[in-house]
Amino acid sequence: MKPPDSLLTQLNLYAEEKYEDEEDVRERAKDLITQVKRGHTKSHSDFEGSLDDLIHLAKQHSELYPTMLDILKRFSQLLQRDIGL
User: Fold this and answer.
1) Strand, coil or helix: what is 62?
2) Crossing angle (nearest 10°) for helices 5-38 and 65-83
3) Mind listing the pLDDT tens digit for each residue in 4-36?
4) Is the dihedral of CA 54, 59, 74, 76 positive or negative?
5) H or E stretch including 66?
């Protein structure tokens, strides 16, 4: 039994848009990481401030600090793998 053509068209369109969205997210992440590494981003200080706040809060709750560090390391690894750095 074959699905209706309209359903196949919708699925193909969804898959294509999803792929394009994923590519866009990867490109944006790559650009952001490049900008942060070079220090050429307008939100660089905002980013650092947010990161400092996160670290400060995690240090206040010592049981969360190792978990937060592990999450950040894993996030960095995922970004590096996904954007090919």
Assistant:
1) coil
2) 110
3) 999 999 999 999 988 888 888 888 888 777 776
4) positive
5) helix 65-83
Dist. CA 14–CA 19, nearest whole Å: 9
Mean pLDDT over all residues of the chain? 80
* Residue 44 banded pLDDT, cuts 50, 70, 90: low
pTM of the model: 0.41
Nearest CA among 65, 33, 27, 66 for reference residue 47: 33
Domain spans of the chain, in order of start: 5-83
Separation of alpha carbons 39 and 68, rounded Å: 24
Of the candidates 85, 56, 80, 84, which has an alpha carbon nearest to the alpha carbon of residue 68?
56
Six token digits for residue 45:
């200080």
Distance CA 24, CA 66 (A): 32
Q: With 60 as the cut, is the pLDDT of residue 42 above it?
A: no
